[in-house]
Model the fold of this input.
Amino acid sequence: MAKKDDRGREGEERAARYLEERGYRVWDRNWRCPQGEIDIVADDGRDLVMVEVKTRRTDRFGHPFSAVDRRKRERLWRLAHAWMRAHPGAARGRSVRIDLIGITGERPATAVLEHLEDLR
Done:
């Protein structure tokens, strides 16, 4: 297994714990379909939240959020709709949003975590 993959998994674990500590309910992790993968699907008590997690050792090649360009945002929305089609009762009558969590630092467990809500 590549160290990059391990780092990404550790970052996603940290992000899920962070969300749960703030009262989110995590519904799904690493949900896959033919169009791709959603890192975390959660519920903040009001909205259904699709979370993209980006984990980096440093910001030398840019901030983790900079990896989510227009094309990636469009893909995340397509994936959100696919998840909702696969789980029709979960999203009924609820708003859906996309959040980003960026984790920057040598060790994901202690790195800087930033949460950007409602990516548009």
The first strand starts at residue 25 and ends at 33. The chain has a mean pLDDT of 91.
